[in-house]
Write a structure and sequence with these properties.
By secondary structure, the chain is α/β, with parallel strands linked by helices. The chain is 30% helix and 24% strand. It has a single domain, classed as 3-Layer(aba) Sandwich (Rossmann fold). Strand 4 and strand 5 form a beta hairpin. Helix 3 runs parallel beside helix 5. The longest helix has 17 residues. Bound molecules: adenosine-5'-triphosphate.
Length: 259
């Protein structure tokens, strides 16, 4: 069978098929269907308690759907093993000041998969961690204890951790909560750049309507229960040529424009 250009740059990244979820007897997600294609930017918007975080937790395997099926990169979630293809930044949790890990250790921990937790990292992998910290402009904080940093600095460390493997899919749950306005602008500029030039697909929960609508438009592609999905594709869906895979994580840094 001939593979068209459209198929090539529109692989299925996430497929959510009639998924429901209940906490004990409380149904939070009901028969949700949604597909995320390669190079989509999906903004997930909804009121408090609509089930956005629950949905993201199901996508990364932290919660199991009560019903329905989720596929990641065309594999059923239960069989999916390539977790390094996915970066995930959960909702912000302030770290206890006594938490012992340094920023570098946190970023390096993104490199370990479940089965390879004790292996030695190669020089190239160590360099990737330095690049990710540079990209997030936290290289000066590399040896500081994470618990001693501000909320925004901690969040940048977790973003560096999430991008260290150059993931194909980045899942972000309210990534700019607790970050000052100037840093937020730099952050959104950076993720737009990653979306347009680094061949990344995004799923992002945010309450920042201004940012979401300015990039993704005011009309949601889909409304399901209390959750709205706003979607933007990088380019004309028929055209794969805009992809520029020559950028490195280090170059993202140029785009941030914040101190
Ligand atoms: N562990 C849990 N046990 C029971 N109920 C829960 C649990 N976690 C969340 N819920 C409930 O499920 C619903 C959906 O929660 P969820 O965190 O997914 O919402 P959300 O859309 O992310 O909200 P927010 O915008 O406030 O972050 C809420 O009513 C919440 O109280």
């Amino acid at each position: 069978m001939e593979i068209s250009q459209k198929d090539f740059c529109h692989r299925s990244i996430v497929s959510i098929d009639h998924v429901s979820f209940s906490y004990e007897h409380k149904k939070v997600i009901d028969q949700l269907r949604f597909d995320v294609l390669e190079r989509d930017f999906v903004g997930v918007i909804g009121s408090n308690g609509a089930g956005k975080t629950t949905l993201l937790k199901m996508l990364v395997g932290l919660l199991k759907p009560t019903d329905g099926e989720i596929r990641l990169f065309d594999s059923p979630l239960s069989q999916f093993k390539d977790w390094e293809r996915i970066g995930y930044v959960p909702q912000k949790n302030a770290f206890n000041p006594l938490f012992p890990a340094t920023v570098r250790e946190i970023v390096l921990s993104g490199m370990y998969s479940k089965k390879r937790i004790y292996r030695r990292l190669s020089k190239a992998e160590l360099q990737k961690a330095e690049d990710a910290m540079l990209a997030m402009r936290i290289e000066d904080l590399a040896d500081r204890k994470i618990g001693q940093l501000s909320g925004g600095q901690q969040q940048r460390a977790f973003l560096a951790r999430a991008i260290v493997n150059n993931p194909e899919l980045l899942i972000l749950d309210e990534p700019t909560v607790g970050i000052d306005a100037e840093t937020q602008i730099g952050f959104f500029r950076m993720i737009r750049h990653m979306h347009q030039h680094h061949h990344m697909t995004f799923i992002m929960v945010s309450h920042d309507m201004d940012m979401m609508q300015s990039y993704l438009g005011t009309e949601p592609q889909q409304v399901s229960g209390g959750i709205k999905f706003h979607v933007k594709h990088t380019h004309d869906p028929e055209d794969c040529r805009e992809t520029n895979l020559t950028h490195s994580i280090g170059q993202i840094r140029e785009m941030i424009g914040v101190q």
